[in-house]
Structures are given as C-alpha cells and as structure tokens.
Design brief:
alpha/beta; 15 strands; Beta-Lactamase; 6-stranded antiparallel sheet; 409 residues
Length: 409
C-alpha cells in the first residue's frame, strides 16, 4: 500500500464560531479520492469519531492519518454525512427517525459507493462500500462454470447467500451482465441502493432504487408482476411478504434472483421457512422445493500471497434428491451437504471441498482456511495426508487442538 504521510494535507477552512464549538470544513471528495488511492484491494472506507479515516484492505482495517484529520471529531463525521447526503431528504429523515440510512454516492471518474450512515453513542459513523466501476465477469470472479446455467433458466428462484462483504452483489452482477449480453429479455432490478449500473445491451434493463423509486421491496416486487419482466432481481429477501411474492413470481413464469445473509444452503432453507408461521411452514417447504434452481453461498478467504481474497463458493443445484431434502427436511444421512458432496457430476460443490482444494493448490493457508470451514474437525481428518507430508511440515498448524475449540461454525 502506498503509505500516506503526515505531510499530506486536505484543504480546510475554519469557521468564525467561538473556539468551544469550532467546526471545520474540508473537501470530502478529495478525502475520499486520497483514501481510494492509498492502496489496492480496498473494499470499504470507514469514518468514526475518535479515529483517523480508515480503509479496509483484504479484511484488515488501516488508519490513514492525514494532516489535520489525525482524529475525526463528531463534528467531522456529521459534516461528512451531510456532504454525502447532499440535499436528499429521504436518507436525512431515515437517519433522524430510524438511526441509520442507506444511499448510493458517486464521484465522477473516481468511483461509486454503497453508503450506510448510522448513529452510535449519539454521533454519526459512516461505512462506504466501494463498488467496482466495471461489472466483473465470470472469469474475473473465478465463478464455478455451472453458474452459467442460470443465464438459460426461464423461471424459478436463484439465491446468492453469505455474510456482509462476501461478494454476493458482484456474483449477481456478473450473472445479470451475461444475461444482458446474450438474451433479448426485459430485466428489472429492485435494489437498496443501486450498486452496479447496467446499460441496455441485448436485454432491456430497468433498475429501481428503494426509497427514491419505491418505498419497499414487496411493493416493487408486486408491481413488477405487471411490468412484464422475464427476470427480476430483488436486492435482499428481507421479510415474509417479499419472500411470498418472490415465490409467487417464480411460479408464474419469472426468474427471481436475490440474496440472503445466511452462511450456507441448509441455513438458507431454514431461514426462509422459519419466517412463516408453523402452520404454513410445510406448504412453504413444498413451494420452495419446486421453485429453487440454485442456492449459491460464498465466503471470502485471505490469499496466502497477501494479494486480496479468494471466494470459496458452495453450490446447491435443484435435483430430485435436493428437492426432496428441501421439501421433507434434512435427516441423518439425508442432508443438503451430503447431496452436494455426491453431486459433483451435476456441478455441485461444498465449502470444505473448495477450501481443501485451495490449500492443496497453495492458494490459502491451512490455518486461515480452517477458520472458515463448515466442519473444521472433519476437514483436518480429510487432510491428514497433506499435514503428514514432510514437504508441508512448515505449513502444519502450530496449535492443532486449541484452534478447534475456537471454530464456531
């Protein structure tokens, strides 16, 4: 990372207010630009009272001590928040009434961001997720080839899941861009906020943003059924109503793509079913079993060479076996994980298998991968030959037993 020095200064003006309530203004655009240019693989910019501006690089926070902004005050973060919101009343009212607000922000020629401003300890804090200028492709993201089948789907539900910052939006953007290039479809997206900007290619694509174009996902999704799209992308399955309408849309001939904050396929099914009252859950299982086409789960793992992170991707595909497990529930020897382990010929893959492949290819460190494993104990046993190989002795974990107790997944 190109280090920032204390000699770098941002233009600032000091108000004529009394010293006890002195506020300073500075160029937020120049600050953001300097932060983005401070290194590569920057995923987030963070502004918090009591700290210097920070960037997240490959999962680690780094402080950037600009001269004059070595420590942000609550007035500074309030000023930055105000500049980011501009004259937009919608996020300002949400911040005031609900304590947080989402918005998109762009600097011409520099970049686009998904912004969340929130109150903490009575002050404002800000997280800005960096959105790549260029829509990433399948090869660039190293996505499993089986996901290209999504482009050919005519109906059903495709879910991309994972924790915040795991690349869900990038994966969906890559699928949507390929569809946009190859199919003469009407594609509609409903996002909060709009991240990747899709241009009309072979498809016609409309993008609606929550709050500015529609008040809720469910209302926009209900309206979408009258707007004749072939493909609907819903930014997130947030509530019962959105899930219900998405299933309805898939059952009436639409392809619906969306995201969930769940860690794997099994948890995704349970999350969707668990949103509904107990009396309705079996009916929802039956509908979901018929509707789902793919459940794709992602985790970003730090690369061994320090050059960013690599996505470990789990793929559950709709087959007779997986539909049965979704509809009837999982049992001993009949789990979605078992189906993915046995489903390689259908293009399915599971996290621990992908992590093992990365370790053996020397892409990720054994210890680092173990912390992201679904079942760390089983993975250690599966890799016993690797650990016992004299050529890999230097890669052996230094705390073979204690680490297992730290694994929470």
């Amino acid at each position: 990372m190109a280090a920032l020095t204390d000699t770098q200064t941002l233009p600032a003006e000091t108000s004529n207010a009394p010293s006890m309530v002195k506020e300073r203004t500075f160029s937020v655009v120049q600050l953001i630009t300097a932060m983005l240019k401070s290194g590569s693989h920057i995923s987030d910019l963070i502004f918090s009272p009591g700290r210097a501006p920070q960037v997240e690089i490959s999962g680690q926070l780094v402080e950037l001590k600009f001269k004059g902004l070595e420590m942000l005050t609550h007035q500074d973060t309030k000023f930055i928040a105000s500049e980011l919101m501009g004259g937009n009343d919608i996020p300002a009212k949400k911040l005031e009434n609900e304590g947080s607000a989402d918005l998109s922000y762009a600097i011409n020629g520099i970049g686009r961001f998904r912004v969340n401003i929130f109150r903490q300890r009575g002050t404002n804090a800000i997280v800005m997720r960096v959105i790549p200028d260029k829509i990433p492709g399948f090869d660039e993201l190293k996505l499993p080839p089986v996901l290209q089948e999504i482009v050919e789907l005519r109906n059903g539900v495709v879910l991309v899941t994972g924790p915040t910052g795991s690349g869900k939006s990038s994966t969906l953007a890559a699928v949507l861009d390929k569809m946009n290039s190859e199919k003469a479809y009407h594609i509609l997206t409903i996002e909060d906020p709009i991240e990747f900007l899709h241009r009309h290619k072979k498809a016609t694509i409309h993008q609606r943003e929550l709050h500015s174009d529609t008040p809720t996902f469910s209302l926009a999704l209900r309206a979408a059924l009258r707007q004749a799209p072939k493909v609907i992308l819903v930014g997130e399955m947030r509530d019962k109503e959105t899930i219900e309408i998405a299933l309805e849309a898939s059952e009436t001939g639409h392809l619906v793509m969306s995201t969930l904050h769940t860690i794997d396929a099994s948890k995704t099914v349970e999350r969707i079913v668990g949103v509904f009252p107990l009396a309705d859950q079996q009916a929802i299982r039956t509908r979901l079993a018929k509707a789902f086409r793919f459940i794709v789960s992602q985790r970003l793992i730090p690369r061994k060479d320090g050059k960013g992170r690599i996505a470990a991707v789990e793929v559950l595909k709709s087959t007779m076996r997986t539909r049965e497990y979704v509809e009837k529930g999982e049992g001993e020897g009949k789990t979605l994980l078992d189906a993915m382990r046995d489903g390689t010929t259908d293009g399915m893959q599971h996290f621990d298998g992908e992590l093992e492949k990365f370790i053996r290819e020397d892409v990720v460190d054994f210890e680092a991968a173990l912390g992201f494993a679904t079942n760390a104990g089983n993975m250690r046993l599966e890799m016993q030959d690797y650990l016992e190989d004299p050529r890999n002795k230097k890669k052996r974990p230094s705390q073979s037993d204690s680490l297992l107790s730290e694994i929470t997944r």
